[in-house]
Amino acid sequence: MKRRIRVIVFSVLVLCGSLLFISFSDKDFQIAKNLDIFVTLFRELNLYYVDDTDPEELIESGIEGMLGSLDPYTTFIPESDMDDFKFMTTGQYGGIGALIRKAGEYTMISEPYEGFPAHKSGLRAGDTIISINGISTRKMDISDVSELLKGTPNTSLELSIRRIGSEKAKDIEIVRERISINNVPFYGMLDEETGYIRLSNFTKDAAREVKKAVMDLKDQNARALILDLRSNPGGLLMESVGVSNLFVKKGQEIVSTRGKIKKDDNVYITTSQPVDTNIPLVVLVDRRSASASEIVAGAMQDLDRAVIIGRRTFGKGLVQRTRPLSYNTQLKVTTAKYYIPSGRCIQALDYTHRNEDGSVGYIPDSLISEFKTLNGRTVYDGGGIRPDITVEEDKPGNLTINLYANNMFFDYATVYSARHDSIPSPEKYTVTDALYDDFKEYISDQEFDYTTRSDDKLEELIKMARQESYYSLAEEEFEALKKKLTHDLSKDFVTFRDEITSLLAEEIVSRYYYQKGRIRVSLKDDKQMDKAMEVLYSDDLYRNILSGNYVDESVKTASRYGR
Description:
Blueprint: H1 2-19, H2 26-48, H3 55-68, E1 75-77, H4 82-90, E2 92-95, E3 98-103, E4 106-112, H5 117-120, E5 128-132, E6 135-136, H6 142-149, E7 156-162, E8 170-175, E9 177-180, E10 186-189, E11 194-198, H7 206-219, E12 224-228, H8 237-245, E13 253-259, E14 266-269, E15 281-285, H9 292-302, E16 307-310, E17 318-324, E18 330-339, E19 349-350, E20 361-362, E21 370-372, E22 378-380, E23 389-390, H10 398-405, H11 408-419, H12 433-445, H13 453-467, H14 475-485, H15 489-495, H16 497-522, H17 527-537, H18 539-547
């Protein structure tokens, strides 16, 4: 490694020396000058710093500092992270096919993917990994555990696992496979005429998977579709064009990119015959829908091809490319901004003009512009895709948040699934009163407790009152208020029952029906889905929204720039 650093430093020194002998612009001079300063500083630091330095660590810190002044999507990818990067773009890797998480001193299986080695070998959510090929995982970093689980397809590994209810460890042999995570984890009919497709990523083959789903649903007599892009972080731009192509005519512009270099200026049009340009379509989005998700949602909105329902999207209008560097490393760099058919860019944060403290702010209202959809509806740039109908998600209570953060749903589902061999289908499964009471009893046995925001704020107020000598003047009032505001666990279990049972049902169902089951049961209690069905059931409402003859009452009085 030190030899590698010396080679890099020598190469930079040679480059700097060479640049001094050619005629170049002011900017070229600044580049050569600052490279020379950096290299000489690096050399002197390594020679004279009082303690031994790690050259590679210093260089990586310098790289991180340099890229940190840009946007968060421009990143350095070291050789050690290339497998993770390939997985992000292709959805493929060699391994056992399971999600893992930290559990005390060990690592635990949090979800085996259905049909992959972990599932076929009998691994369950909640299994604790004690060792891998004889190597103890105790106190091992989760990233190191992940590396041991990954490997070349068709190679085997032996896991020693501990399952709840058994003190004795169990050995399981698993043969790794090429794991390919589906972009479409679930699709199906919601009723006799409405099809549903969950698209979770835009890695390789996303468009092909959505096309298959659309065609299968049409074969099942689907006369309307819901495309769910919620929590979809995006991915490959070309896959977003391919997905859009399924619903609009061939030759239609979907997105264009504009960058500093001419080759980054491109217009992307649909190149294939669509599957269906007329079927009523609703696209669901939320704050976690980003990048390629926003291209699809934005194109469908600009072309008046679908009704967009949910919450304003993330607002990532930047395009990245990877550039190869030496020693099998790469630079993922933002090269352009993208623009959807109306001509708007939906980028929300302005990384170029930072605040005085270095923080990043939203595109100012003064720079927000109006654009028109194909039917003449007004839309805006500079802040993600605003839905045609906004449906806010209910904010969970503090009890629910703390139960989730402390893995209470996960742990209870592990115990429950160990006691029950089967449950009804996701559509028929419900959390009964008896089960809910059992869950509450389980929580009480765990010595679980939590604080509310009111608890925290009151403690702050009392502390400040003591410091300013006001507490003694109103001690009785403070104590009375504390008594009234202190949370009551039993009462909160009643108040927040609906949201608690929803999460509990998802976790339990996932133990028997895996990711598909989790999605299916989650749709039963979904306000945005309910609104989507309402729109699709009313031909007049659907047409009025797309023609501009509808006003979303939930945002009518709000600022058009509301974040």
